[in-house]
Amino acid sequence: MIKITVGDLLLNCACKLLNGDEGTIINECFTDSRKVTEGSCFFGIKGNNTDGSLYYKDAMESGAKVLVLSKRDDYNFKGYEDRVVVIADDILKVLQDLAAYKRSLFKGSVIGITGSVGKTSTKEMLSNVLKENYKVLKTRGNENSQIGLPLTILRLNDEDVMVLEMGMSKAGEMHNLSLIAKPDIAIITNVLDSHIGNLGSRENILKAKLEIIDGMTKGTLIINNDNDMLNRVEESIKEDVKVMTFGIENKSNVMPFNVNENVVTSFEIGDIKDLKIKGSKTLIYNALALYLVGKLLGVSRSMIKKGINEYSNEKHRLEVINLKDNITLIDDSYNASYDSVKVALEYMKNFEGNKIAVLGDILELGKESKRVHKKIGNLITDNNVDELVTIGKYSKYIARVAKKNGFKRKHIKHFKNELKSRSYVKELLNKDSVILIKGSNGINLINLVEYLKKKD
Description:
The structure is a single chain. By secondary structure, the protein is α/β, with parallel strands linked by helices. It is 31% helix and 21% strand. The chain has 15 helices and 20 strands. Strands 7-8-6-9-10-11 form a six-stranded parallel sheet. A six-stranded mixed sheet has the order 15-16-20-17-18-19, sandwiched between helices. Helix 2 links the parallel strand 3 and strand 4. The chain is globular.
């Protein structure tokens, strides 16, 4: 069991003790005072809108034993004199440095996962496999950021393996995360248009994703060889990092065979037969990546099979929900990119019934927004969509292109926001309908999903 103390914090981070005992053990850490638990540590990070240190009393009232706060003259600790208080100029850097220190004490394996889409599903499926052999610490929810990843590492207790989702939106962020996590195995699921508004090009996105190896002194990089950006990088990877590939189309170190795509997709990998995934064919990519990790970590074939076959989609990620009157709701409202919209539309083709596509904006595309949404418009007629509903600022271009391609106008409706679409979408649902709801998280289509579920 790895335990760290306030003394370790003071020794490894740029901060000073204001009050309390250096021998105090640092338990789970939080940056949100509303989530603080008894005996935990609170980091009062200054954000864009507020200074977290202002909520120090809320944190203490919730039971925070250790507080890392910014320098202020008006703190009042009356009644909480037993609490440990540490002062720092850059609290985020202190959080990250403490996580890096705790990682340095860990002797197990660290697996870092990044990519434009598929990070979470890969993390969940991989954790499902590894838990059969190891005690696994995995990223909770989407805590994959400059704050989230350190918080995950600081939850480390007596686990054998860490499975860390690593997200970024601009250059340099993945570099920083990699120096903290120092992965032994890194997985890049793909390089797509996500964050192109911040990074300017897919080439720059590729460079930013490849920063995941910056903290690796040795180990293995596992990449999707079917991705047009990744299948050309092997020769440029530093010598002490071994590259392994997976793919369905391009020749790779591991590939599936006997693939049968349907509502439940079946396939085989190596000598593992009768593999089944409830969801899109793209989940095979996740299975291939975890197969390679499983082999590297000595997981048996039977345990790999069990972990894959028992996997089920995370909420709001191609989650199939059965409503009354045999209505099928495919909830993919968590996030979106061009490629993931394409996958979702193709997956909907596997279901019988009147097909309704509710598509919201894809965010963070910058100057590429119109082009990408127009490109999605070309997918509508190819995927047997019967009714099209678009929501947001840019999704109107999906509707315009679909109409131009011959999609009947009476089957197209556009709304500025999710709330205004609700009654119309509800009226579209008839017996045996299949409805796909897909868009970036910021468009709030999750609320539309919940509305339809409540009206069920």
